[in-house]
Write a structure and sequence with these properties.
By secondary structure, this protein is of the alpha/beta class. Helices cover 42% and strands 23% of the residues. It folds into two domains: 145 residues, NAD(P)-binding Rossmann-like Domain (Rossmann fold, 3-Layer(aba) Sandwich), CATH 3.40.50; 190 residues, Alpha-Beta Plaits (2-Layer Sandwich). Strands 6, 7, 8, 9, 10 and 11 form a six-stranded mixed beta sheet that branches. The protein is elongated.
Length: 421
């Protein structure tokens, strides 16, 4: 479902518009074409916001008005109309509203009317509410989540906050080589097909699409709509992306396009989420060490020959999923080592053959960390015979050969350090 709204020629009156949700309403209504009149005791703050809206091409007007000095919202509106003329849209965000103070305000007096301070007291014109939320979040979240948000719009904000979330990064391998082999039109068509298919997968798992970075995709789970299973949905998305990529291989070959391969990194942790950027451009995004680690995990998937790597917190939250521990690593920019894992599938859906290999692998990894090179080499060799195409087994055989020639010493912690991103 697509949402759109045109409020050209209408005048919107917003109380308590100096920050938070009131400021969001001001920017959204202005972007839709309305002339925005904002009232607050914090006039200096309003002037700053007016400059921001004017810089975005909107029409903003500021009046000094302490709503608490009026017996009702209606009398405050009447006072404002003496300065700006007829008001078409009313948004009460004063923080002092009660249903009693709103009793003399009729929705029939306005094209649209909202009260953000009393949940359930007034949220008329539901479809317009959806459209306004869509303007704030619609480019990031699927329409069905906008519908869910519209049931209680005052619970959602683009203001920054700290939250435990899960982030996903994906990247096309050897993209430079691929791009050099296609003309600009063909490359554009290929990327549109690929990004379109991957975006559908993200949205099917309730993900928030953060951005495309060239051929890369960044998405996260848990905001703006709370998701107790954010880690699970992110990992299922990563698995589904790899499956979808295989389905794209045949139609891509039919069009003379190369088969694509991607690496996906998933990590869970505390992140700052909110509307960030400059007066020129902002985006609803996530930041923090946990986000950076997610990006680093994606970048090392190729080193291990796997399609997906997840961080330790993601792994710990998913008790019903089978993982293979790949290594303990220090990524660029981090001193503390972390365990990294490859998801193999949901418990009960992983084949007996894969589970048997996993058991042997876990034994081999223990031998490797105990510096029992001879026995570790034997186990890795047996695994490589079962799966000759597995780069991970070859990687550890090479490591064992190296350590046999140059033993690491008794204080070796078994951690692999990456010096590049």
């Amino acid at each position: 479902m697509a949402y759109s709204i045109d409020l050209s020629g209408r005048v919107a009156f917003i109380t308590g518009a100096s920050g938070g949700l009131g400021a969001q309403f001001a920017r959204t209504l202005s972007a839709a074409g309305a002339a925005v009149v904002r009232a607050s005791r914090r006039v200096e703050k309003l002037k700053e916001l007016r400059a921001q809206i004017d810089g975005e091409g909107g029409d903003a007007h500021v009046i000094e008005l302490d709503v608490t000095n009026h017996a009702s919202i209606k009398s405050a509106v009447a006072h404002a109309e003496t300065e700006v003329g007829s008001i078409d849209i009313l948004v009460n965000n004063s923080g002092v509203s009660t249903t009693q103070r709103l009793q003399d305000v009729s929705p029939a007096d306005y094209d649209f009317m909202f009260d953000t301070t009393v949940k359930g007291a007034f949220f008329v014109a539901q479809e317009v509410g959806k459209r306004m939320l869509a303007r704030l979040f619609g480019q990031y979240v699927p329409p069905e989540l906008v519908d869910e948000m519209a049931k209680d719009p005052t619970s959602y904000s683009m203001d920054g906050r700290n939250e435990e979330l899960t982030v996903l990064f994906s990247d096309v391998r050897s993209f430079t080589t691929i791009s050099e082999g296609l003309d600009p039109q063909e490359l554009t068509h290929l990327m549109n097909e690929y990004l379109g298919a991957m975006t559908v997968v993200v949205r099917e798992q309730r993900g928030t699409l953060d951005k495309y970075i060239g051929d890369a995709i960044m998405a996260f789970w848990g905001a703006p709509v709370a998701d107790p299973e954010h880690a699970r949905h992110a990992v299922l998305t990563a698995i589904a992306m790899q499956k979808e990529l295989k389905l794209l291989a045949e139609p891509f070959r039919a069009r003379g396009w190369p088969e694509l391969h991607i690496g996906v990194g998933v990590n869970t942790g505390m992140m700052t989420v909110g509307d960030m950027g400059s007066p020129v451009r902002k985006a609803y995004t996530v930041m923090g060490d946990a986000v950076n680690l997610g990006s680093r995990l994606e970048s090392i998937t190729k080193q291990y020959g796997v399609g997906i790597i997840v961080g330790p917190q993601t792994h710990d939250l998913l008790k019903d999923m089978v993982f293979r521990e790949l290594d303990k690593v220090r990524v660029k920019g981090k001193d503390e080592p972390v365990a990294i894992y490859e998801p193999l599938g949901l418990a009960g859906e992983v084949s007996a053959e894969v589970l048997a290999q996993l058991k042997t692998w876990q034994h081999a990894l223990r031998l490797y960390r105990a510096q029992d090179w001879e026995q570790a080499e034997l186990q890795f060799y047996n695994l490589s015979r079962q799966a000759p195409e597995c780069k991970l087994y070859q990687l550890y055989l090479a490591r064992v050969a190296h350590w046999q020639k140059e033993p690491p010493g008794a204080d070796w912690d078994g951690v692999t350090t990456f010096e590049t991103k």
